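TEACHING EXERCISE
Course module: macromolecular assemblies
Task: Read the component lines below, then compare them to the predicted structure of the full complex.
Student: A.B.
Group: 4
Components provided:
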Amino acid sequence: MLTTQRLMTAAKPNVHPSGIRVRTYRTSEQASLAIATEIASLIRKRRAAGRHCILGLATGSTPLRVYSELVRMHRQESLSFINVVSFNLDEYFPISRESRQSYFRFMQENLFDHIDILPENVNVPDGTVSAAKVQAHCHAYEKRIAEAGGIDLQILGIGRSGHIGFNEPGSDRGSRTRLVQLNAMTRSDAANDFSGIANVPTQAITMGVDTILSARRVRLLAFGERKARIVQRALQTSVSKQLPASFLQNHGDVEFIVDASCAGE
Ligand code: GLP
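Instructor-supplied answer key:
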């Protein structure tokens, strides 16, 4: 059996003409183990240097296997998260933390409850603040990222609308954490989770495009045929706010980590 280390080197990145490195793994399982290994190695490197490791985290079905692998490494390979500070990309607005669809709850259940990260080092945009306070909350979120020293490694998924975080088409290159409107495709993709589109919030809080591009490393994960077309467009269209993921073409250290069925196109 291949070790995760060998799997990583097995998938040599192709540098796309856009400048984005694309690593293709046969399966999403292999891709997930490889990215978990990259995260673990960064956490350990920072710890050895007596420093915090600042992670930008994503929700959705795509990173689930990455999180379960990190939990396994914590349990079986003594990977500690004691020096990790995390910032999640986004959260529905408004939403309670107990709500089944809240990203706060998602992160607790799939990662934070099972590792030794300090609760005070966990940051998820707060879907419970009042509408009057949401702007101040977004500014405070940006300030916390800056005070932590900026994000070392940002994990991203991609929505079929081309969004990263909840930066929908039309989002500015210079946008920062803010309240946004969700578009029709995104709400329809979330309809199952909310037992019907009518229950899907129309708004969300998201890190901005510029917040994401300020991360020192960005790793976008996309698995399955369903994502093939939007990934291809993000790589091939010229940079445009109509396709927010295309802004990644201008980042110096970005990789798209895809499986064979996503790479099909
Ligand atoms: C939501 C999240 C995104 C995520 C996207 C894709 O819209 N806000 O951050 O990338 O879903 O989700 P999935 O990974 O389930 O396809």
